[in-house]
Design brief:
Largest sheet: 2 strands, antiparallel
Number of strands: 2
Order of helices and strands: HHHHEEH
Radius of gyration: 19 Å
Number of helices: 5
Number of domains: 2
CATH superfamily of the largest domain: Tyrosine recombinase, N-terminal domain
Helix content: 40-55%
CATH architecture of the largest domain: Orthogonal Bundle
Shape: globular
């Protein structure tokens, strides 16, 4: 049986190191340890859609959700490593979509300022309905630690 790979974590203080070691021991004992990786949210969502959604819904529904990922998630939060995304990131992403997330309307000039359009609440809900089950599946698959996405 191969030896497990050692876990290396750099800390700024001894207290931080002790806390990190405690968290790692607890995670190992409860079988909740997740090895670090650089998988982005966009990469995970594409794989997740193919493995879990494609073929279970209509082609139009699937295409619409993939387009929402491409247009709204990819250029923003999609480029972030999935393990580094926290609830605050998701909430800020939703607020940004509500302020200026509508990509189908071109910004118009109002005097010297550009007027941006927010995404409709129903469209933001559709994006949430993509992200929530994807994050829950990522927890089940051991890709991320426990995350609460409401």
């Amino acid at each position: 049986m191969p030896q497990p790979k050692p876990i290396v974590k750099y800390c700024k203080s001894e207290e931080e190191a002790v806390a990190a070691l405690h968290d790692l021991v607890v995670a190992a004992k409860t079988d909740t340890y997740v090895a670090p990786n650089d998988l982005t949210l966009s990469q995970y969502l594409r794989d997740w859609m193919v493995e879990n959604i494609e073929g279970t819904v209509s082609k139009n529904w699937y295409a619409r959700k993939m387009n929402m990922i491409k247009v709204h998630i990819d250029p923003d939060i999609g480029q972030k490593a999935i393990q580094k995304i926290i609830t605050r990131d998701i909430k800020e992403f939703y607020k940004k979509l509500a302020r200026s997330g509508n990509k189908s309307k071109h910004p118009k000039r109002d005097g010297d300022k550009v007027v941006e359009y927010g995404l409709a609440p129903g469209s933001i809900r559709h994006i949430h309905n993509i992200l929530k089950p994807a994050f829950l599946q990522a927890v089940e698959d051991g890709i991320i630690g426990h995350k609460k996405i409401r």
